[in-house]
Amino acid sequence: MSGVERCPLLRVRDLAVRVRGVDGPEIVHGVDLDVQVGERVALVGESGSGKSTVAKALVRLDPGVEVAGSVQFDDAELVGAPERTLRAVRGAGISMIFQDPMAALNPVRRIVDQVAEPLLIRGVGRREAARRAVEMLDRLGVPRAAERARSYPTEFSGGMRQRVVMAAALVGGPQLLVADEPTTALDVRVQEQVLDLVVQQSDELGLAVLFITHDLGIVAGLADRVAVMRHGRIVEDGPVDRVFLEPQHPYTRGLIGAVPRIDADPGRRLATVADSLVVAREAPPPAGTNRSPADRTQLDGGRS
Amino acid sequence: MTASPPRLVREPQAPPAKSRPHLPWVAPGTVGDGIARGARTLLGRHAGVLDVVGLVLVVLLLLAAVVGPWIAPHDPYRADPTSSLLPPGREHLLGTDDAGRDVLSRLLVGARSTLLAAVGVVVASTFVGAVVAAVAASAPRWLDEAIMRVVDIFLAFPSIVLALGIAAALGPSLTSVVVAMVVAMWPATARLVRAVMRQTTSSQYVEAARLTGMSQRRLMSRHVLPNSFDSVYVQLGLDISGAIVLIAGLAFLGVGAAPPSADWGSMVAQGREYVTTAWWVALFPGLAITLAAVGFALLGDTLRVRLDPTVVRA
Amino acid sequence: MTRFVLRRVGLAALSVWGVATLVFFMTKLIPGDPARVAAGRTATAEQVAQARARLGLDRPFAEQYLHYLGGLVHGDLGWSASTKQPVASDLALVVPVTLQLVVVTMVLTVAVAVPLGTLAAVRHGRSADTVTRLVAILGGGVPVFWLALMLQWLLAAKLGWVPISGSSGFGHAPPVVTGATLVDSVLAGSPTDLADSAWHLVLPAVALSAPFMAVVVRNVRSALLGVLGTDYVAFAVSKGVGPWRLVRHHALPAAAGSTLAILGMQFGWMLGAAVLVESVFAMPGLGTYLQQAVVNQDTFAVLGGVLVTGAVFVLAGLVVDLVQMLIDPRVRASHLGGAA
């Protein structure tokens, strides 16, 4: 890529994430990752590999973990920075979109209020914020945006909601969009539309994108670079073509081999990652590393 | 009301400390430590201070109910005008009432009737409620609907008002209070059990069991009923707690136990006239009611968490 | 939407009919002869027979029932044996007093419990949870009449901070228009009467709110905890929203629905508990009326009071449902979907 010699937009060095508590396990170890201005990077791994944890750790979204190492965004250090600094970065420097657009919108607030929020909290007037929110919805292809902005999320379909979520993420003019499995909850057709939209905005706005995904298939056409994560570490990082054509790490080879192929012999058993790992068996993962804190949900009878 | 469906809550806090083998204030190896260990065994590893407090309160109440009349220092009924309204002191630990009767003795003797009435009311109303729910569940749809609408109408009355009305209609006696309270309390159980049964019969695991060819009877006995009973007995502690307070309230209003008997609620009512001069007459019976109710509520809460497998304490 | 409102109102009317029917059956349950009570202790057999005919008690059961319902429609709840007045006009005097107490208590409960519950949710941890649990259980276990009595003793008798009982001080009773002293003071245009009436309500409202406060705190807390764990809150944080805006604009509106439902149910329970509190503070409300009626075995007065309580409970549920539909687009959407 051309930007290697420039200072990257996002520079992550030796990032470690540990569950808060007396003997909370470390779930991400020594992650290095760069994202250049306008670059699209995919962070790939199976569920539990720590990729979402990394995404949330960038702007310290999960209060249940401790983050160590260094995250530099636009030359400012975020690890250990005061909450104020992080709030200023969230939504205006680094925005996020989440897995489930159904769950990411507050059901009791109007669309326009939710999209305009990043502007409102930064002192933009109500009217102006609403105008720019509608403009952004329109730009992202929400039909009759001005009118529909006044309605509530329940009245929107899944694909439309993901557009609304994206509008709220982009309205503050961020330089980096972190898309945490943005399409997993959508059906295939809508997935494609949403991804196209992300790429299109990235091109038009010069927006850098960090895709977090388990789906190698969607990465190929979208990203410039791929980083593969496993057990909380990055095992391979390189330009997308190189990683696909000459994967260095057996795990990457396994992941690529496990993508079902339509032209494969129908009688053959589908390949799994384990098939490739038989050759280069690794040490078993340390205990407690296979679950991210976000996955640690608790069944609660109303007491907790 | 308290048996809300389990909710997924993301737990941002650190995992709690491991089970603590000792209560902080009990020295290891003493009798107190033995009791604390016993309580833990009964209440589960995660029992906190409040769980133990609940158990202790209920045990004390049970003790008072069983041996109260024998350990009472004075005759709870003997009026003695010469020792009327004595403040708490060495002779009368909790003072005396207007008729000169020992408050502590009356409290000890009153424990039995309080406990019997509350447990009796809860057992009876739970039974009635569960039977009505089961009948509704197995009846044709229209009858089921009709029964549950009637239940709703009963629930439209605050229980104390309904009990008051019925007790008034039946005439003043402890029996009519018990009947009135059963009438006032069964609908809540009926609604709860019916809701759990409906939820269970439409759940995917029952559906799955049905698909494996399990018979209707086996389905009922293996899945639907156990679930419904769970929801009932995790409620029992809270229900008893509520019944104790309700009985006391009715007695306070003058419905229920006739004046000379040592009933906690009517003792408070007696004391209200002297509250500015002889606070102990009203204070201690009220405290007894509170502690008894709190004890059962805490114990019920503990058991709810311990017995209900869907409630997992982190 | 209109269809839903109409259906809900119809359902409420049906419930009130059910409540009335239940009360009617309660009148039939009573041992003894209501005609004898109505005619008086010294009445002759002839007078009792007259009373029976006047009350319609000699007619068939179904006819009595229809007669009773017909009477209800015209606001006829029978005659009180002790006040020698129609029960309906007695109730018109006492119900506003109770409603005023309950509404003031409700406002007090919400004003204190919502911030406390919010704090408990935001500061959520092991010790804060234990405190919340203890407060909730204590609140449920303390008999409200005893608490009222003890507060009266401590705050009024010993410390003299607030009036000991009654609804208004000497010379401060506003002319009775509605029966609710606050409203009457405003109608009379007298700020001193208003202050005095409010002053008299402090102790009863505090005592009455105690058991409900605990429940609301706990519910607000668990509703907020549920909301704070959702993705939309995480998304709001990722937009740069700070903690206070998060609670005020995102979490509280979403938790309002369940809290409102709890408050609706509590309205009825408060009516019940108000019986006890009024009795302690000698307030001339529905509770005192009911208690007097029970003591005097004034059957029609008791049943009239019970009926009104049930009806008010039903109406409170109706109001809550309609308000919920106004504020929560989820509820609105589900009803629109249901009606379409």
UniProtKB/TrEMBL annotation, chain A:
| InterPro entries the UniProt entry points to | AAA+_ATPase, ABC_Ni/Peptide_Import, ABC_transporter-like_ATP-bd, ABC_transporter-like_CS, Oligopep_ABC_C, P-loop_NTPase
Per the record, where are the segments of Basic and acidic residues compositional bias? 293-304
Q: Name one GO cellular component term.
A: plasma membrane
Q: Which GO terms describe its biological process?
A: peptide transport
* Origin superkingdom: Bacteria
The record, for PANTHER family, names: DIPEPTIDE TRANSPORT ATP-BINDING PROTEIN DPPD, OLIGOPEPTIDE TRANSPORT ATP-BINDING PROTEIN APPD
- The protein depicted here goes by the name Aliphatic sulfonates import ATP-binding protein SsuB
Q: Please state which protein family the record places this protein in.
A: Belongs to the ABC transporter superfamily.
Q: Does the keyword Metal-binding apply?
A: no
Q: Name one GO molecular function term.
A: ATP binding
Q: Which UniProt keywords apply?
A: ATP-binding, Cell membrane, Membrane, Nucleotide-binding, Transport
The answer to whether the entry has keyword Cell membrane is yes
Region of interest called Disordered, as start-end residue ranges on this chain: 281-304
Q: Taking every annotated instance into account, which residue ranges of this chain make up the domain ABC transporter?
A: 10-256
**Localization per Swiss-Prot or TrEMBL:** Cell membrane
UniProt topology in membrane: Peripheral membrane protein
Automatic annotation (TrEMBL), chain B:
Q: Which residues cross the membrane?
A: 49-72, 115-138, 150-170, 176-193, 232-258, 278-299
Sequence segments annotated as region (Disordered)? 1-23
GO BP terms: namely: transmembrane transport
Keyword Amino-acid biosynthesis listed? The answer is no
Which Gene3D superfamilies does the entry mention?
A: MetI-like (1.10.3720.10)
Where found? Cell membrane
Signal peptide start-end: none
CDD domains in alphabetical order: TM_PBP2
> How does the record classify its membrane topology?
Multi-pass membrane protein
The domain of life for this entry's organism is Bacteria
* Swiss-Prot/TrEMBL keywords: Cell membrane, Membrane, Transmembrane, Transmembrane helix, Transport
Entry annotated with the keyword Membrane: yes
> What Gene Ontology terms describe where this protein resides (cellular component)?
plasma membrane
Where does the ABC transmembrane type-1 domain start and stop, copy by copy? 111-300
Family classification: Belongs to the binding-protein-dependent transport system permease family.
The protein's name in its UniProt record: Oligopeptide transport system permease protein AppC
Automatic annotation (TrEMBL), chain C:
Taxonomic source organism: Luteimicrobium xylanilyticum
Gene3D superfamilies, A to Z: MetI-like (1.10.3720.10)
Q: Membrane topology type, per the record?
A: Multi-pass membrane protein
Q: Where in the cell is it found?
A: Cell membrane
GO CC terms in record = plasma membrane
SUPFAM superfamilies according to UniProt: MetI-like
- Tell whether Cell membrane is among the UniProt keywords: yes
Which superkingdom heads the taxonomic lineage of this protein's source? Answer: Bacteria
Q: Which UniProt keywords apply?
A: Cell membrane, Membrane, Transmembrane, Transmembrane helix, Transport
Q: Which residues cross the membrane?
A: 9-27, 99-122, 134-155, 198-217, 267-287, 299-323
The protein, known as: Peptide transport system permease protein
Q: Which family does it belong to?
A: Belongs to the binding-protein-dependent transport system permease family.
Q: Which Pfam families match?
A: BPD_transp_1 (PF00528), BPD_transp_1_N (PF19300)
InterPro entries annotated for this entry? Answer: BPD_transp_1_N, MetI-like, MetI-like_sf
GO annotation terms (biological process)? transmembrane transport
Q: Which PROSITE patterns match?
A: ABC_TM1
Which parts of the sequence belong to the ABC transmembrane type-1 domain?
95-324
User: Has the keyword Secreted been applied to this entry?
Assistant: no
Task: List the lineage, top down.
Answer: Bacteria, Bacillati, Actinomycetota, Actinomycetes, Micrococcales
